[in-house]
Amino acid sequence: xxxxxxxxxxxxxxxxxxxxxxxxxxxxxxxxxxxxxxxxxxxxxxxxxxxxxxxxxxxxxxxxxxxxxxxxxxxxxxxxxxxxxxxxxxxxxxxxxxxxxxxxxxxxxxxxxxxxxxxxxxxxxxxxxxxxxxxxxxxxxxxxxxxxxxxxxxxxxxxxxxxxxxxxxxxxxxxxxxxxxxxxxxxxxxxxxxxxxxxxxxxxxxxxxxxxxxxxxxxxxxxxxxxxxxxxxxxxxxxxxxxxxxxxxxxxxxxxxxxxxxxxxxxxxxxxxxxxxxxxxxxxx
Amino acid sequence: xxxxxxxxxxxxxxxxxxxxxxxxxxxxxxxxxxxxxxxxxxxxxxxxxxxxxxxxxxxxxxxxxxxxxxxxxxxxxxxxxxxxxxxxxxxxxxxxxxxxxxxxxxxxxxxxxxxxxxxxxxxxxxxxxxxxxxxxxxxxxxxxxxxxxxxxxxxxxxx
Lengths: 285, 159
What we know:
The structure holds two protein chains of two kinds. Chain A folds into three domains: 7-52, Uridine Diphospho-n-acetylenolpyruvylglucosamine Reductase, domain 2 (2-Layer Sandwich); 63-172, Uridine Diphospho-n-acetylenolpyruvylglucosamine Reductase, domain 3 (2-Layer Sandwich), CATH 3.30.465; 181-284, 2-Layer Sandwich (Enolase-like, domain 1). The longest helix of chain A is centred in the last third of the chain and has 20 residues, at 265-284. In chain A, helix 10 packs antiparallel against helix 11 and helix 11 (241-254) runs antiparallel to helix 12 (265-284). Chain A is built from twelve helices and 14 strands. Chain A is of the alpha+beta class. In chain A, the strands form four sheets. In chain A, strands 4-5-10-6-7 form a five-stranded antiparallel sheet. Chain B is of the alpha+beta class. Chain B folds into two domains: 2-75, Beta-grasp domain (Ubiquitin-like (UB roll)); 85-154, DNA polymerase, domain 1 (Orthogonal Bundle), CATH 1.10.150. Chain B contains five helices and five strands; from the N terminus they run E-E-H-E-E-E-H-H-H-H. Chain B has helices spanning 22-29, 85-92, 102-115, 121-128, 139-154, and strands at 2-7, 10-15, 48-51, 54-57, 70-72. In chain B, a hairpin with a 2-residue loop joins strand 3 (48-51) and strand 4. In chain B, helix 3 crosses helix 5 (139-154). The longest helix of chain B has 16 residues, at 139-154. The termini of chain B are far apart.
């Protein structure tokens, strides 16, 4: 359980970090909070030749809130999302979901960029990015590119990040007043990865009918995903008990849960139905 | 690599290989063996130390990452031969048996109560959920931490 041997670099600028990635190619791995990378190293599932620590790179730790939405720097830690006074109003779904991430000590270290780059299918941050039409901001050799979160996660622990690229932040679109929302997840022990979870929201039109429903799930496929059929059941409805039941049932059919040590496929399917129903009920209440 | 940091108030300079975890550095190089290593992959919480005021798993942090930081270990929370108020509460409530998890419980509880001396029982349970204890069943630990709150509310960061 000791880490394999590696070199360590602590660049002072993004350019310097990009230069190190260019020089070392696949042999270099970025280090932010280390709360996913260090266990991988301990298990020898990764054995890079060089760790490039981003802790001294300026500008990655900012939280920006304005009319254009919320921007989280890649080095923003979970505990900083808890403490930020403006985020609870600017993006309540984000704050509630991130409240479920890991345990106290890990929340003091783990980062937004690290979670996005790791791409665990049950992780909250990728789930929020996909559910809320987030854009992942990536810096590479040829400049900045912005990738829709829906296109970013390719499979379990797999993203479209290219060699030599660094995630610098996540942008979430503005959150209108009056939006209905909820987050629900189920884990065996608080702070552990969820067996499944859902983040969802919708707006109400002048007749009190739901529009623009976004229903996302985590832990229910090889990546976080939105559920188009369940969303169709909610759009145009008054989100009454019938609509909620229909949407939850559609959600359970639409997901493609993996079977593993923790739960069989049928269990996770049933869990998605329960959690979506619970979240929609809370959102409507 | 050469690192310089403060450990329990004392400046320490040392040469350390990048692969050495902060926990191993504290235990093997500085001989501060109060920091215990259980799982060594961030699950059990026994190795919790306080880095710049925040409780952190020392098995998931490299010693080189601690360059320039202020570290407090369980040794830094003792009160010479007398028990600190938090330790006294642990003793009173029988909040330890084998003692393996205790350093992590003490450092975690100290960081929590320093920041949130009014933490309620739910909050204490939530925070300590990241620390595994196989002896006590946790209830005595929660009771000890709840009783220790009074000492943290009264003064600035005891002991």
